[in-house]
Amino acid sequence: IAQDASSYLAAKNLEVIPNELVLDICAAPGGKTAVLAENMENRGEIIAIDIHQHKIKLIDTNMKKLGINIVKAIVMDARNVNKQGRKFDKILVDVPCSGYGVIRKKPEILYTKNRENVEELASLQLEILNSAADILKDGGELIYSTCTIISQENTENVEKFLNERKEFKVKALNIPENVSGEYDKLGGFSINYKEEIMDNFYIIKLVKEEKC
Questions:
Q1: Could you tell me whether strands 88-94 and 189-191 are parallel, antiparallel, or unpaired per DSSP bridges?
Q2: Which H or E run contains 119?
Q3: Catalytically annotated residue among 26, 97, 147, 212
Q4: In this structure, are residues 112 and 179 in contact, taking their beta carbons and an 8 Å threshold?
Q5: pTM for this structure?
Q6: pLDDT tens by residue, 122-163
């Protein structure tokens, strides 16, 4: 599956290992899911969710092509993911976003995005992040990522989250030196327009500390 190098980075930084139970949120078409499965050596289990039925079929098809059989693709609204009853070792929270990071590939975005959208999206993203956080095991890790460079959807959202959820701490990312971008005050990384090959992208890693 062709995928942007920036979403590859998000999946890589989750540092999954074989036999873990992993959740991939907004997973279609499955590029990141495939990276996760590969790093797990096709052992363990990945639950890949998306809100659209046709996209679930796409994930299934792509996994079959790659010979991956540890992925269960399920239709689910990511906001309700905390109602499904299982706890996960690691979670990839790649949220729907305004897409300002992918304008180079989709210039029409400029005509459809507006400020209200961004505010609505930011609160949707925070809802999804909170829902995922509920079902992460103590000691578990999650990656929050967006394909935008708007602070409201990135740094500000994560800051709100961290202020409410004191059990979460930021963990250092592993970003190759040849990737241009900058870290925000929290330790999240933005790939920005100077980067010619990769989409703009924001990524931060959070760990859920064990309750004493």
A1: unpaired
A2: helix 115-134
A3: 147
A4: no
A5: 0.88
A6: 888 999 999 999 999 999 999 999 887 778 889 999 999 999
